[in-house]
UniProtKB/TrEMBL annotation:
Position of the signal peptide: none
Annotated HicB-like antitoxin of toxin-antitoxin system domain residues: 11-63
Official protein name in the record: HicB-like antitoxin of toxin-antitoxin system domain-containing protein
SUPFAM superfamilies xref list: TTHA1013/TTHA0281-like
InterPro entries referenced in this protein's UniProt entry, alphabetically: HicB-like, TA_system_antitoxin, TTHA1013/TTHA0281-like
Length: 69
């Protein structure tokens, strides 16, 4: 399991739980349950990192809880 912060919320529009990974731009997943969404997010995080490496992009270090204004 990666140590990136995840934000989980219910989307009425999508009728699914959404998981966003703010430290990895554009990285998000969904699922019918919280557990499914988190499991799907782990797969998407791995794929995000794999693609970033292929493109020679720097992989952000997990910072833990982010602060929001």
């Amino acid at each position: 399991m990666y140590k990136y912060e995840r934000i989980i919320y219910w989307s009425t529009e999508d009728e699914a739980f959404i998981v966003e990974v703010p430290e990895l731009p554009g990285c998000m997943a969904d699922g019918k349950t919280v557990q499914e969404a988190i499991s799907n997010a782990e797969i998407i995080i791995e794929e995000w990192i794999e693609v970033a490496k292929e493109r020679g992009q720097q992989i952000p270090e997990p910072k833990g809880k982010l602060m929001y204004a």
